[in-house]
Each structure stands twice: as structure tokens, then as C-alpha cells.
Amino acid sequence: MKLANFILLLATFVTCQCFSERENNFSTEFLYFTQSETAGHAAVSPYGVWNMLSLVKFLTAGNTKTQLQRALFLPKSCIESIYGLKNLSDVILGSNSGNTTVFSRNYMVIDQNVRLNYMDFEEKAKIIGMNIISLDLNERDTAVIVANRIMFDEGQEFSVKVPEVIQIDEIHPNGITLANVNRFQHIWRNKFTSVKVENFYDANNRQIGKVNMMFQKVNAACAQITPLKSQVLELPYGTDGKYAMLLIKPWPKTKVNDVFQKMTTFTYGQILNILNMQPPTVVYVKLPKFEINTNYALNVPLNKMGVFDLFEKKFSEFYGVPRNSLFVPAIVQHVSMEVNEVGLHRDMVQRGKRAVAFYAYRPFLYFVIEKTTDTIVLSGVYSKPTVY
């Protein structure tokens, strides 16, 4: 019995690792194309969108399905997909504690007369956590109000304030509108000891504003990564080591977009391998205090990743549905997150370790990662300073 349980646990772990790698391949590209539509300052949940579209893929056929499969780096096996998604979701969403909370919900808004013919789709949707909202989409004004209210009410159950995510022009009687809502709440393992207003600069060291800069001295993994022309730091959340923030600060005169280009060949996994090999290090950290709330329509970023037919009624193909009768008018996402000084304790820094400085006073990238699977839960670019 113990052997059987061990084999099951090992299989689950391997499946999670496999699907985490697929999601991470999608993540960097997705953040790059989204931030290019938002003047560089952005926050997205790659995991939320990837998880949602991985389920929608089951409904599609022909070229529509092929485009999604390529963009999402998914396996062709449906059975492998559904159980891989389930295992990864259980690890990420089933691990909330008093120190860290990940709220990620997917919604499908569809006309009440449309029937999704893929076998057992509604059951699969429940397994992954997709909420199907069936309404009369010919009454668009009412449908938008009701759909947003359902999302708001579910958020209230988890103390998450959900704004009006879906707009009236984002639904259609022949459409499936997809919405993904995310909130990441955390407490650092180590508290920041001071906060004061400091200057913030662009990649060329020109001042572009001011921020409330937080400071701490901490034992952490930090490295200069030459292929990225960046300094990288990992800061842990909570006490269980389950979540951490990965910060990537480009070197002077290196732009965020330059780092994105280099990450097409130097992967996220390679970054983590380098950090894991670093000797014990004392890091003097300066990080802006900020809050970010985003609402994005994701059609254009996904177009740039090769997903076209899904959004066009004349090209979209869905399993068991007459061609050109069903499409996705919009995919929308809401992300909210606060980065502040609150931590559990002050780190007891040991003497004799090497010491480095990580001062984030220029635009930088950040990734919230689930450590047991190395999954990117949330990612963003900080480039517009505010005194928060």
C-alpha cells in the first residue's frame, strides 16, 4: 500500500513538473506581448490564462485547435492534458495558507441556447475549476450585469474585490466570452525595515519619477546572469518555502525588452539553476512599494502568439458545432497584487558571507513562482513609478 501511494505521489509530481514547464514556456512570451500593448507597465497571470485556454482547447477542432496547442505548448493527448491540468491546479490553488493566498478563477459566459458538444465538457470544467455562466446573450445589457455580479459575489466569498471585468462589447449571442480573475496576497518571510521616497530612473539613468523604496538586509539567492545582462534575486514568501518572487533587474543601458529577447534562448529554468548554485549571500535589497490592478483584453497578445481563428467567426472551428456558428469575441483578465513591506520577521544575517546590493531603481521584471513545481503564477513589468 505504501509503495502504491509512493508511486501515485511520484506520478503526480512528474506530471506537475511536465505541465509547469509547458506553462512556463508560454509565460515569458505571453508577458512580453501583453506588456508591449500596455507601454511596458503590466501584470498578468500566465498560469490563469494558460489553464483556461488549455481547457477551451478541448472544445475546438481543426486549425483552431492546432493554433491553441502550439501557443500553449500542450500535448496532443486529451487524457494526459486533463489530468496534468488537474494535478497542477491542485498544487497551486490548493495550497493557500495564512501567509499566502492565490485566488484564480476562470469563467465562460455563453448563451443559454448554445450546447457544448464535447463529451463530458462540463464535468471537465468542474475538475479544472471553470465556472460556466449560461445567460440570454441577446439581452446583452442584462447579461453583462449578471455575469459581472456572479464574479463579484464569488470574489467576496474569498475577500477579493472583483471589478466589472466584462464590457458590453465583449459578448455576442454566438460567442463564448472568457474571463480570468486573479488576486495574489502575501506576506514576505523577512520584513522590510524601512521605507522612504527615492528617485526612480529609466534604463539610461534618467530620472522618471519617485517611489516609496523599501529596504531590507537578507540572506537570499542572488546572481549576475551575463546572458541576460541582468541581476536576478529570489525573495521568499511565508515560512513554508512554497512561494517566492523572482526579480530580474537589467544592467544599466539594458532595456526590459532586451531581456525578453534574450529569454527566448536563455530559459527560466536556466535562471533557477544558476540561483540554486549560488553560495550563501547577504543581499542589501531596495524594492519599490506598489500596488497594481489590471484589466486586459488579451485578443491582440494572443494573436501575436499565433492564435487567430478562435476570435474570428468565419474561421473558428468547434467540436460538434456547425462551422462559423461559434467563436470567442473576447478573452479578458483581471490581476491585482500589492507589494509592501510586511513580513514575518527580520532576517538574522550571518557574518562572513559575501554581500551584494540589489537596488531596483530602474524598470525590472518580476515573477511570482510556486516553488514545488517552479510554476509562474503571476508576472509583470514595473516601469511607471508612483509614490504608493
TrEMBL record:
SUPFAM superfamilies: Serpins (SSF56574)
Domain Serpin: 26-385
Gene3D superfamilies recorded: Alpha-1-antitrypsin, domain 1 (2.30.39.10), Antithrombin, subunit I, domain 2 (3.30.497.10)
Any Gene Ontology CC annotation: extracellular space
Coiled coil: none
Keyword Signal: yes
Signal peptide per UniProt: 1-18
Keyword flag Transport: no
InterPro entries membership: Serpin_dom, Serpin_fam, Serpin_sf, Serpin_sf_1, Serpin_sf_2
Keywords from the named record: Protease inhibitor, Serine protease inhibitor, Signal
An annotated Gene Ontology molecular function: serine-type endopeptidase inhibitor activity
SMART domains linked to this entry: SERPIN
PANTHER family named in the record: GH21475P-RELATED, SERINE PROTEASE INHIBITOR, SERPIN
Family per similarity comment: Belongs to the serpin family.
Protein's name in the database: Serpin domain-containing protein
UniProt organism field: Pieris macdunnoughi
